[in-house]
Design brief:
InterPro entries: AAA+_ATPase, ABC_carbohydrate_import_ATPase, ABC_transporter-like_ATP-bd, ABC_transporter-like_CS, P-loop_NTPase. By secondary structure, the protein is of the alpha/beta class. The chain is built from nine helices and twelve strands. Bound molecules: adenosine-5'-triphosphate (ATP) and magnesium ion. Adenosine-5'-triphosphate (ATP) is lined by residues 14, 17, 19, 37, 39-45. Adenosine-5'-triphosphate (ATP) binds at residues 14, 17, 19, 37, 39-45.
Length: 267
């Protein structure tokens, strides 16, 4: 199957800092592509290029096989690329339905008044289609849980015709139950035929939903593997950085990890 979105030898420098070097990867329709990497690996830089925030300095980004260069996030959105940022996904003080239609409000009549009734009806229908239960759509988004917020943002991207959805560490700040909720919607986005880019530090979350795994390290791709050729153990080991862990264990040898330090006696 041809890729919806592909990067070929993409590089990005910020002055002397090479945030990305020679990065190639493909995002296919109906698949979850997980991008993993430690702090500073280049994950956010990759998202910024694909979502039109920053231009790349080298290589090529292609959409449906044709090279593209997005001048702004609006360009990327118009091409069907939706980005769900961890904190900026939604406007916290606005209601759920307002957020759902933010920037795409429905208007009707000669005066082009907001068509509130239709927006509420569609928002309710779309959320329930995805199995998202939010009893009161007038509630401000700030009162939803982090997981629910991510799910509303995913449902919105699907409704407005995204073909590729990028989720930037959607489970990073969430507990086990909430993460499960978000991972379920990652799968729903995949099943709706989108190409999903799932950015995470967590190999366990990635392996639960991923078809394809890319690990970045210091701006380079160090692993690019399909699920068939990768076990969770190997993915976790690659992420843990086997050598670095061995070095750390060497350094910490003799610290007596089980030691309990008694409180200092008053003098
Ligand atoms: N605007 C910028 N100017 C200069 N250097 C930058 C800029 N943005 C990122 N970098 C550098 O590029 C490298 C990759 O950063 P990036 O934020 O993409 O990493 P990341 O994988 O998202 O890390 P994290 O897990 O901490 O979010 C880092 O060395 C970072 O310091
Ligand atoms: Mg980042």
């Amino acid at each position: 199957m041809t890729a919806i979105l592909s990067l070929s030898n993409v590089g990005k420098s910020y002055g002397n800092v090479h945030a990305l070097r020679d990065v190639s990867l493909s995002v296919r329709q109906g698949e979850v592509t997980c991008v993993l990497g430690d702090n500073g690996a280049g994950k956010s830089t990759l998202i910024k290029i694909v979502s039109g925030l920053h231009p790349h300095s080298a290589g090529e980004v292609s959409l449906d096989g044709s090279p593209v260069s997005f001048g702004s996030p609006r360009d990327a959105q118009a091409a069907g690329i939706a980005t769900v940022y961890q904190d900026l996904a939604l406007a916290p003080l606005m209601s759920v339905w307002r957020n759902f239609f933010l920037g795409n409000e429905l208007r009707s009549g000669l005066l082009r008044m907001l068509d509130i009734a239709s927006m509420k009806r569609i928002c309710a229908a779309e959320l329930s289609k995805m199995g998202i239960v939010i009893p009161d759509l007038e509630r401000p988004v700030a009162s939803l849980s982090g997981g629910q917020r991510q799910c509303v943002a995913i449902a919105r991207a699907i409704y407005f015709g995204a073909r590729v959805i990028i989720l930037d560490e959607p489970t990073a700040a969430l507990g086990v139950k909430q993460s499960g909720l978000v991972l379920r919607y990652v799968v729903k986005a995949r099943d709706a035929g989108l190409g999903v880019i799932f950015i995470t530090h967590n190999p366990h979350h990635a392996y639960l939903v991923g078809n394809h795994f890319v690990i970045l390290k210091l701006g380079r791709v160090v692993l690019d593997a399909h699920r068939d050729s990768l076990t969770l153990d190997r993915l976790a080991a690659e992420m843990a950085g086997g050598e670095e862990l061995a070095e750390l264990s060497h350094e910490l040898r003799g610290v007596d990890a089980g030691k309990v330090v008694p409180p200092a006696s008053p003098s």
